[in-house]
Amino acid sequence: MTDLRKRSLIKVAALSALTSAVLIGCGKKEEAVPAPAPAPAVVEAPKPEPLKIAFAYVGPVGDGGWTFAHDNGRKAIEAEFGDKIVTSFVENVPESADAERVIRDLAGQGNKLIFGTTFGYMEPMLKVAPDFKDVKFEHATGYKTAENMRTYDSRTYEGAYMAGVIAGSMTKSNKLGVVASIPIPEVIRNINSFTMGAQSVNPKVTTSVVWVNGWFDPPKETEAATSLINGGADVLFQNTDSSAVLQTAEKLGKRAFGWDSDMTAYGPKAHLGSAIINWAPYYIKATKDALEGTWTTGGVWWGVKEGAIDMVSVAEDVPADTKAKVDMIRAGLKDGSFSIWKGPIVGQDGKEVLAKDVVADDAFLGGVKFYVKGVEGKVPN
Protein backbone atom coordinates (compact mmCIF):
# COMPACT_ATOMS: atom_id res chain seq x y z
CA MET A 1 0.00 0.00 0.00
CA THR A 2 1.32 3.33 -0.97
CA ASP A 3 1.90 6.10 1.53
CA LEU A 4 -0.67 8.26 -0.25
CA ARG A 5 -3.31 5.58 0.15
CA LYS A 6 -2.43 5.15 3.86
CA ARG A 7 -2.82 8.86 4.50
CA SER A 8 -6.19 8.86 2.74
CA LEU A 9 -7.46 6.00 4.89
CA ILE A 10 -6.28 7.73 8.06
CA LYS A 11 -8.14 10.95 7.10
CA VAL A 12 -11.31 8.99 6.37
CA ALA A 13 -11.12 7.26 9.77
CA ALA A 14 -10.53 10.54 11.56
CA LEU A 15 -13.43 12.23 9.85
CA SER A 16 -15.67 9.27 10.68
CA ALA A 17 -14.72 9.43 14.36
CA LEU A 18 -15.33 13.18 14.44
CA THR A 19 -18.73 12.78 12.78
CA SER A 20 -19.74 10.08 15.25
CA ALA A 21 -18.73 12.24 18.18
CA VAL A 22 -20.73 15.16 16.85
CA LEU A 23 -23.77 12.98 16.23
CA ILE A 24 -23.56 11.44 19.69
CA GLY A 25 -23.21 14.89 21.27
CA CYS A 26 -26.15 16.25 19.36
CA GLY A 27 -28.33 13.28 20.21
CA LYS A 28 -28.01 13.72 24.04
CA LYS A 29 -30.60 16.18 25.38
CA GLU A 30 -29.45 18.05 28.51
CA GLU A 31 -32.07 18.00 31.32
CA ALA A 32 -33.26 21.45 32.60
CA VAL A 33 -32.68 22.22 36.32
CA PRO A 34 -36.10 22.84 37.90
CA ALA A 35 -36.70 26.30 39.44
CA PRO A 36 -36.94 26.28 43.27
CA ALA A 37 -40.52 26.09 44.60
CA PRO A 38 -41.77 29.32 46.18
CA ALA A 39 -41.77 29.30 49.98
CA PRO A 40 -45.25 28.79 51.42
CA ALA A 41 -46.88 31.99 52.64
CA VAL A 42 -46.89 32.39 56.45
CA VAL A 43 -50.51 32.50 57.61
CA GLU A 44 -50.89 34.04 61.06
CA ALA A 45 -53.47 32.50 63.35
CA PRO A 46 -56.46 34.82 63.78
CA LYS A 47 -56.17 36.86 66.94
CA PRO A 48 -58.94 36.00 69.41
CA GLU A 49 -61.52 38.67 70.00
CA PRO A 50 -61.07 40.47 73.33
CA LEU A 51 -63.44 39.56 76.15
CA LYS A 52 -65.98 42.33 76.56
CA ILE A 53 -66.61 43.19 80.21
CA ALA A 54 -69.15 45.69 81.54
CA PHE A 55 -69.81 47.25 84.93
CA ALA A 56 -73.08 48.72 86.19
CA TYR A 57 -72.49 51.34 88.91
CA VAL A 58 -75.07 52.66 91.36
CA GLY A 59 -73.26 56.00 91.75
CA PRO A 60 -70.79 58.18 89.87
CA VAL A 61 -67.20 57.03 89.45
CA GLY A 62 -66.15 60.23 91.17
CA ASP A 63 -68.02 59.54 94.41
CA GLY A 64 -64.72 59.04 96.22
CA GLY A 65 -66.05 55.89 97.89
CA TRP A 66 -67.96 52.77 96.79
CA THR A 67 -68.17 53.27 93.03
CA PHE A 68 -64.72 54.84 92.91
CA ALA A 69 -63.36 51.65 94.51
CA HIS A 70 -65.12 49.44 91.96
CA ASP A 71 -63.81 51.55 89.10
CA ASN A 72 -60.29 51.19 90.46
CA GLY A 73 -60.89 47.44 90.25
CA ARG A 74 -61.97 47.82 86.62
CA LYS A 75 -58.77 49.70 85.84
CA ALA A 76 -56.78 46.97 87.58
CA ILE A 77 -58.06 44.29 85.20
CA GLU A 78 -57.26 46.51 82.22
CA ALA A 79 -53.69 46.76 83.47
CA GLU A 80 -53.54 43.01 84.20
CA PHE A 81 -54.97 41.62 80.95
CA GLY A 82 -54.21 44.32 78.37
CA ASP A 83 -55.70 43.74 74.92
CA LYS A 84 -57.26 40.44 75.97
CA ILE A 85 -60.20 42.41 77.33
CA VAL A 86 -62.25 45.52 76.65
CA THR A 87 -64.13 47.15 79.53
CA SER A 88 -66.96 49.66 79.77
CA PHE A 89 -69.24 50.98 82.49
CA VAL A 90 -72.55 52.72 83.06
CA GLU A 91 -72.75 54.94 86.15
CA ASN A 92 -75.70 56.20 88.20
CA VAL A 93 -77.89 53.16 87.45
CA PRO A 94 -80.76 53.26 89.97
CA GLU A 95 -81.80 50.22 91.98
CA SER A 96 -85.12 49.99 90.17
CA ALA A 97 -86.70 48.53 87.05
CA ASP A 98 -84.30 50.71 85.08
CA ALA A 99 -81.45 48.48 86.25
CA GLU A 100 -82.92 45.55 84.31
CA ARG A 101 -83.03 47.62 81.14
CA VAL A 102 -79.38 48.67 81.52
CA ILE A 103 -78.13 45.17 82.31
CA ARG A 104 -80.11 43.68 79.43
CA ASP A 105 -78.67 46.31 77.10
CA LEU A 106 -75.12 45.54 78.24
CA ALA A 107 -75.66 41.85 77.48
CA GLY A 108 -77.15 42.71 74.09
CA GLN A 109 -74.03 44.73 73.24
CA GLY A 110 -71.93 41.56 73.36
CA ASN A 111 -70.49 41.83 76.85
CA LYS A 112 -69.76 38.31 78.10
CA LEU A 113 -68.92 39.22 81.69
CA ILE A 114 -71.14 41.74 83.52
CA PHE A 115 -70.65 43.03 87.05
CA GLY A 116 -73.61 44.52 88.92
CA THR A 117 -72.05 46.40 91.80
CA THR A 118 -74.83 46.95 94.31
CA PHE A 119 -77.34 44.91 96.31
CA GLY A 120 -80.38 46.29 94.49
CA TYR A 121 -79.32 44.79 91.15
CA MET A 122 -79.86 41.22 92.38
CA GLU A 123 -83.41 40.69 91.15
CA PRO A 124 -82.90 42.53 87.82
CA MET A 125 -79.83 40.40 87.06
CA LEU A 126 -81.74 37.22 87.92
CA LYS A 127 -84.37 38.20 85.34
CA VAL A 128 -81.83 38.91 82.62
CA ALA A 129 -79.48 35.94 83.16
CA PRO A 130 -81.73 33.18 81.72
CA ASP A 131 -82.06 35.11 78.44
CA PHE A 132 -78.27 35.26 77.91
CA LYS A 133 -76.89 31.83 78.75
CA ASP A 134 -73.50 32.63 77.19
CA VAL A 135 -72.98 35.63 79.49
CA LYS A 136 -71.46 35.41 82.98
CA PHE A 137 -73.21 37.67 85.47
CA GLU A 138 -71.54 38.74 88.74
CA HIS A 139 -73.59 40.36 91.49
CA ALA A 140 -72.01 42.27 94.38
CA THR A 141 -73.27 41.77 97.97
CA GLY A 142 -76.23 39.58 97.07
CA TYR A 143 -77.15 36.03 98.00
CA LYS A 144 -79.11 34.63 95.03
CA THR A 145 -77.36 32.78 92.23
CA ALA A 146 -78.22 31.15 88.90
CA GLU A 147 -76.48 28.82 86.46
CA ASN A 148 -74.68 31.78 84.90
CA MET A 149 -74.81 34.23 87.83
CA ARG A 150 -72.69 34.22 90.96
CA THR A 151 -72.22 36.56 93.90
CA TYR A 152 -69.21 38.27 95.41
CA ASP A 153 -68.81 40.43 98.49
CA SER A 154 -66.23 41.97 100.80
CA ARG A 155 -66.17 41.64 104.57
CA THR A 156 -66.64 45.33 105.19
CA TYR A 157 -67.46 44.61 108.83
CA GLU A 158 -63.76 43.91 109.36
CA GLY A 159 -62.88 47.47 108.35
CA ALA A 160 -65.79 48.76 110.45
CA TYR A 161 -64.46 46.98 113.53
CA MET A 162 -60.97 48.44 113.10
CA ALA A 163 -62.52 51.89 112.68
CA GLY A 164 -64.45 51.30 115.91
CA VAL A 165 -61.26 50.55 117.83
CA ILE A 166 -59.87 53.91 116.72
CA ALA A 167 -63.15 55.73 117.42
CA GLY A 168 -63.41 54.29 120.93
CA SER A 169 -59.96 55.55 121.79
CA MET A 170 -60.44 59.01 120.25
CA THR A 171 -63.93 60.03 121.41
CA LYS A 172 -64.18 62.54 124.22
CA SER A 173 -67.96 62.49 124.57
CA ASN A 174 -68.25 58.69 124.36
CA LYS A 175 -70.94 59.28 121.77
CA LEU A 176 -70.38 57.93 118.28
CA GLY A 177 -72.57 58.56 115.23
CA VAL A 178 -73.26 56.49 112.12
CA VAL A 179 -74.78 57.73 108.87
CA ALA A 180 -76.37 54.59 107.43
CA SER A 181 -77.74 53.88 103.97
CA ILE A 182 -80.31 51.07 103.69
CA PRO A 183 -81.29 48.71 106.57
CA ILE A 184 -80.08 45.42 105.12
CA PRO A 185 -77.96 42.88 107.07
CA GLU A 186 -74.75 44.15 105.46
CA VAL A 187 -75.21 47.66 106.84
CA ILE A 188 -76.61 46.60 110.24
CA ARG A 189 -73.66 44.21 110.62
CA ASN A 190 -71.24 47.09 109.96
CA ILE A 191 -72.92 49.35 112.55
CA ASN A 192 -72.69 46.57 115.13
CA SER A 193 -69.08 45.74 114.27
CA PHE A 194 -68.09 49.40 114.54
CA THR A 195 -69.74 49.59 117.96
CA MET A 196 -68.14 46.34 119.19
CA GLY A 197 -64.74 47.58 118.07
CA ALA A 198 -65.23 50.81 120.03
CA GLN A 199 -66.47 48.93 123.11
CA SER A 200 -63.38 46.69 123.04
CA VAL A 201 -61.29 49.69 124.08
CA ASN A 202 -63.96 51.89 125.69
CA PRO A 203 -67.02 50.13 127.19
CA LYS A 204 -68.70 53.49 127.86
CA VAL A 205 -69.39 54.35 124.23
CA THR A 206 -72.84 54.44 122.66
CA THR A 207 -73.72 54.71 118.99
CA SER A 208 -76.52 56.72 117.40
CA VAL A 209 -77.68 55.99 113.85
CA VAL A 210 -79.38 58.15 111.23
CA TRP A 211 -80.69 56.37 108.13
CA VAL A 212 -80.74 58.20 104.79
CA ASN A 213 -82.35 55.35 102.79
CA GLY A 214 -79.97 55.67 99.87
CA TRP A 215 -76.39 54.82 98.97
CA PHE A 216 -75.34 58.10 97.40
CA ASP A 217 -77.12 61.25 98.47
CA PRO A 218 -74.62 63.91 99.63
CA PRO A 219 -77.25 66.43 100.82
CA LYS A 220 -79.00 63.85 102.99
CA GLU A 221 -75.68 62.50 104.25
CA THR A 222 -74.63 66.02 105.19
CA GLU A 223 -77.89 66.62 107.00
CA ALA A 224 -77.60 63.31 108.88
CA ALA A 225 -74.00 64.00 109.91
CA THR A 226 -74.93 67.46 111.15
CA SER A 227 -77.80 66.01 113.18
CA LEU A 228 -75.52 63.45 114.83
CA ILE A 229 -72.94 66.09 115.73
CA ASN A 230 -75.64 68.34 117.15
CA GLY A 231 -76.73 65.38 119.25
CA GLY A 232 -73.31 65.09 120.88
CA ALA A 233 -71.42 62.65 118.63
CA ASP A 234 -67.82 63.70 118.20
CA VAL A 235 -66.68 60.80 115.98
CA LEU A 236 -68.67 59.82 112.88
CA PHE A 237 -68.73 56.65 110.84
CA GLN A 238 -70.66 56.00 107.64
CA ASN A 239 -72.02 53.26 105.44
CA THR A 240 -72.81 55.56 102.53
CA ASP A 241 -70.93 56.19 99.32
CA SER A 242 -69.93 59.84 99.25
CA SER A 243 -67.40 61.88 101.22
CA ALA A 244 -70.12 64.17 102.65
CA VAL A 245 -69.90 62.79 106.21
CA LEU A 246 -66.16 63.38 106.46
CA GLN A 247 -66.50 66.82 104.91
CA THR A 248 -69.20 67.73 107.42
CA ALA A 249 -67.00 66.62 110.31
CA GLU A 250 -64.16 68.71 108.91
CA LYS A 251 -66.41 71.76 108.70
CA LEU A 252 -67.78 71.33 112.22
CA GLY A 253 -64.50 70.45 113.92
CA LYS A 254 -65.20 66.76 114.65
CA ARG A 255 -63.56 63.51 113.55
CA ALA A 256 -64.70 60.90 111.04
CA PHE A 257 -63.61 58.04 108.79
CA GLY A 258 -63.33 57.43 105.10
CA TRP A 259 -65.34 54.50 103.77
CA ASP A 260 -64.69 52.14 100.83
CA SER A 261 -61.83 54.32 99.53
CA ASP A 262 -59.13 56.48 101.09
CA MET A 263 -60.91 59.79 101.71
CA THR A 264 -58.09 61.62 103.46
CA ALA A 265 -58.07 64.47 100.94
CA TYR A 266 -61.73 65.32 101.59
CA GLY A 267 -61.18 66.21 105.24
CA PRO A 268 -57.54 65.95 106.31
CA LYS A 269 -58.07 67.46 109.76
CA ALA A 270 -61.13 65.34 110.56
CA HIS A 271 -59.85 62.13 109.01
CA LEU A 272 -59.00 59.34 111.50
CA GLY A 273 -58.48 56.58 108.92
CA SER A 274 -60.21 54.98 105.97
CA ALA A 275 -61.73 51.50 105.90
CA ILE A 276 -61.13 50.62 102.26
CA ILE A 277 -62.20 47.89 99.86
CA ASN A 278 -59.76 46.62 97.24
CA TRP A 279 -61.85 44.95 94.53
CA ALA A 280 -58.86 44.28 92.27
CA PRO A 281 -58.02 40.76 93.58
CA TYR A 282 -61.53 39.48 92.96
CA TYR A 283 -62.01 41.21 89.62
CA ILE A 284 -58.72 39.75 88.40
CA LYS A 285 -59.80 36.28 89.51
CA ALA A 286 -63.24 36.57 87.88
CA THR A 287 -61.77 37.81 84.60
CA LYS A 288 -59.17 35.02 84.60
CA ASP A 289 -61.94 32.47 85.18
CA ALA A 290 -63.91 33.81 82.21
CA LEU A 291 -60.88 33.92 79.90
CA GLU A 292 -59.76 30.40 80.79
CA GLY A 293 -63.20 28.83 80.76
CA THR A 294 -63.08 27.91 84.45
CA TRP A 295 -65.88 30.22 85.59
CA THR A 296 -68.52 28.53 87.76
CA THR A 297 -71.49 29.80 89.72
CA GLY A 298 -71.47 30.17 93.51
CA GLY A 299 -70.35 32.94 95.81
CA VAL A 300 -67.26 34.36 97.51
CA TRP A 301 -66.83 36.64 100.52
CA TRP A 302 -63.35 38.12 100.84
CA GLY A 303 -61.80 40.22 103.58
CA VAL A 304 -58.46 41.13 105.12
CA LYS A 305 -57.19 37.59 104.53
CA GLU A 306 -57.54 37.90 100.76
CA GLY A 307 -56.34 41.51 100.55
CA ALA A 308 -59.83 42.91 99.97
CA ILE A 309 -60.24 44.95 103.21
CA ASP A 310 -57.88 47.22 105.12
CA MET A 311 -57.63 50.25 107.40
CA VAL A 312 -55.31 52.83 105.85
CA SER A 313 -54.01 56.36 106.41
CA VAL A 314 -54.53 56.30 110.18
CA ALA A 315 -54.16 59.80 111.61
CA GLU A 316 -50.90 60.76 113.30
CA ASP A 317 -52.61 61.74 116.55
CA VAL A 318 -54.12 58.28 117.08
CA PRO A 319 -52.28 56.81 120.12
CA ALA A 320 -49.50 54.34 119.42
CA ASP A 321 -51.12 51.60 121.48
CA THR A 322 -54.34 51.98 119.47
CA LYS A 323 -52.42 51.69 116.22
CA ALA A 324 -50.69 48.60 117.61
CA LYS A 325 -54.08 47.08 118.47
CA VAL A 326 -55.34 47.71 114.95
CA ASP A 327 -52.18 46.08 113.56
CA MET A 328 -52.76 43.07 115.83
CA ILE A 329 -56.38 42.76 114.69
CA ARG A 330 -55.37 42.99 111.04
CA ALA A 331 -52.76 40.27 111.50
CA GLY A 332 -55.26 38.08 113.37
CA LEU A 333 -57.88 38.45 110.65
CA LYS A 334 -55.27 37.60 108.06
CA ASP A 335 -54.08 34.38 109.67
CA GLY A 336 -57.45 33.41 111.14
CA SER A 337 -56.44 33.71 114.78
CA PHE A 338 -58.89 36.56 115.51
CA SER A 339 -62.67 36.58 115.09
CA ILE A 340 -64.76 39.72 115.42
CA TRP A 341 -68.08 37.98 115.95
CA LYS A 342 -67.13 35.68 118.81
CA GLY A 343 -69.33 35.25 121.88
CA PRO A 344 -70.40 36.31 124.28
CA ILE A 345 -72.26 38.97 122.30
CA VAL A 346 -75.40 40.58 123.69
CA GLY A 347 -78.15 42.22 121.68
CA GLN A 348 -79.64 45.63 122.31
CA ASP A 349 -82.39 43.99 124.38
CA GLY A 350 -79.85 42.39 126.73
CA LYS A 351 -80.36 38.87 125.41
CA GLU A 352 -77.38 36.81 124.37
CA VAL A 353 -77.12 36.39 120.61
CA LEU A 354 -73.84 34.46 120.64
CA ALA A 355 -72.77 32.27 123.55
CA LYS A 356 -69.30 32.44 125.01
CA ASP A 357 -66.56 31.27 122.63
CA VAL A 358 -69.03 30.60 119.81
CA VAL A 359 -67.83 32.06 116.50
CA ALA A 360 -70.55 33.23 114.13
CA ASP A 361 -70.61 31.47 110.78
CA ASP A 362 -71.40 33.20 107.51
CA ALA A 363 -75.04 32.17 107.63
CA PHE A 364 -75.42 33.96 110.97
CA LEU A 365 -73.56 37.05 109.74
CA GLY A 366 -75.66 37.17 106.59
CA GLY A 367 -78.84 37.37 108.62
CA VAL A 368 -77.97 40.06 111.17
CA LYS A 369 -81.09 42.18 111.65
CA PHE A 370 -80.59 43.38 115.22
CA TYR A 371 -78.50 45.95 117.06
CA VAL A 372 -75.94 44.90 119.64
CA LYS A 373 -75.86 46.45 123.08
CA GLY A 374 -74.71 50.04 122.91
CA VAL A 375 -76.47 50.95 119.66
CA GLU A 376 -79.36 53.29 120.29
CA GLY A 377 -82.70 53.39 118.47
CA LYS A 378 -84.55 50.71 116.53
CA VAL A 379 -83.68 48.87 113.35
CA PRO A 380 -86.06 50.14 110.65
CA ASN A 381 -88.45 47.62 109.12
Question: Overview of this structure, please?
Answer:
The chain is an alpha/beta fold. It contains eleven helices and 14 strands. The chain has two domains: 51-155 and 280-305, Response regulator (Rossmann fold, 3-Layer(aba) Sandwich); 156-276 and 308-365, Response regulator (Rossmann fold, 3-Layer(aba) Sandwich), CATH 3.40.50. Helices cover 38% and strands 18% of the residues. A six-stranded parallel sheet has the order 2-1-3-4-5-11, with helices on both faces. α4 (122-128) links the parallel β3 and β4 (136-140). α2 packs across α9, α3 packs across α4 and α7 (218-230) packs parallel to α8. The longest helix is centred in the first third of the chain and has 25 residues, at 3-27. It is elongated, with a radius of gyration of 37 Å. The chain starts with a helix and ends in a 16-residue tail after the last helix. Residues 1-30 have low confidence and may be disordered.
Give a concise summary.
The chain contains 11 helices and 14 strands.
Helix and strand arrangement:
Blueprint (H helix, E strand, L loop, with lengths): L2 H25 L23 E6 L9 H16 L3 E6 L6 H12 L4 E4 L5 H7 L7 E5 L8 E6 L1 H15 L4 E6 L4 H15 L6 E6 L6 H13 L4 E5 L4 H9 L2 E6 L10 E7 L2 H13 L6 E4 L6 E4 L7 H16 L9 E2 L5 E3 L7 H4 L16
Parallel strand pairs: 1-2, 1-3, 3-4, 4-5, 5-11, 6-7, 6-8, 8-9, 9-10
Antiparallel strand pairs: 10-12, 13-14
Helix pairs in contact: 2-9, 3-4, 5-6, 5-10, 7-8
